[in-house]
Design a protein that fits this description.
- This protein is α/β, with parallel strands linked by helices and 261 residues long.
- The protein has a 7-stranded mixed beta sheet.
- β1, α3 and β2 form a beta-alpha-beta unit.
- The two termini are 21 Å apart.
Length: 261
């Protein structure tokens, strides 16, 4: 298939940012510093054992995949300066690399909607804020790909950019549950738009994050996912044949349904 541009959702970039009067009606309300808002979110998600349960799932995935000392690549987070949801998801990221003892310099973030305030915030935590020219979607080291609530197109392109048994073996996804797409979208449409994702799903081990009431929309449908071991030697080779065949003759899509099942 031909390469397609990486698409990032902008759904999390708008929120209430207008100044409001205080109770006396005399002065403009000054919002707390952005870092304080993130710290509040971090305190909330760490207050009831939820984050401990979540990171237990991540540690299980690291053990099952035999991955140690991973990098973290966060894509499509949204703007923490304008979204409470993005701040909560960032708080999860910060708590994760702290508890898992991953150095902040091994954590990279990218989203084209980041503001200057967002970039300053990331740098204050020691994370690498990638530029448009620096971002790499193919991973070269063991990596946790943190991609909360991204577009299907971005998930597909990320999987396609890492479509080798060696690369898939070194990735743990913290992202939307991929099987929801195959369960809820017509196969014929996914065959055209997401041929890599639909062939990866049957080989994934998936563990959803538990519900967090105070940030229910920030983490709903987010799961820890990785390729189940042992990885079938034919996973990539067979899929490549079907994808190439389909790209040259869409009429063959009906014959590819069971190839990777």
């Amino acid at each position: 298939m031909e390469d397609t541009p990486f698409a990032y959702s902008q759904k999390k970039t708008t929120t209430r940012a207008r100044a409001r009067k205080n109770k006396r009606g005399n002065a403009r309300y000054e919002p707390p510093p952005l870092i304080d808002l993130v710290d509040r979110c971090k305190a909330d998600i760490e207050s009831n054992g939820w984050i401990t349960t979540c990171l237990g799932l991540v540690q299980d995935a690291l053990r099952k995949t035999n991955i140690s000392c991973p990098d973290v690549l966060c894509l499509g987070l949204g703007s923490p300066s304008s979204s409470r949801e993005a701040r909560a998801q960032l708080a999860f990221l910060i708590s994760s690399f702290t508890i898992l003892e991953i150095g902040p310099s091994d954590v990279s973030v990218y989203d084209p909607v980041f503001t200057d305030a967002d970039k300053t915030l990331f740098q204050s935590f020691g994370m690498r804020c990638l530029s448009d020219t620096d971002v790499m979607h193919g991973v070269e080291r063991p990596t946790i790909l943190y991609m909360p609530h991204c577009d299907l197109k971005l998930y597909e392109n990320i999987i396609g950019a890492n479509w080798s048994e060696e690369q898939l073996a070194r990735i743990i996804f913290i992202a939307n549950r991929f099987s929801d797409y195959t369960d809820n979208h017509p196969h014929s449409k996914l065959e055209v738009e997401s041929p890599y994702l639909i062939r990866l799903v049957p080989h994934l081990e998936c563990h959803p994050l538990p519900t967090l009431e105070c940030f229910s929309s920030a983490f709903n449908n987010i799961s820890i996912q990785h390729v189940r071991r042992p990885i079938p030697p034919s996973l990539v080779a067979l899929a490549n044949r079907v994808i190439r065949r389909f790209s040259t003759n869409p009429d063959h899509s009906s014959h590819s349904t069971s190839v990777m099942s």
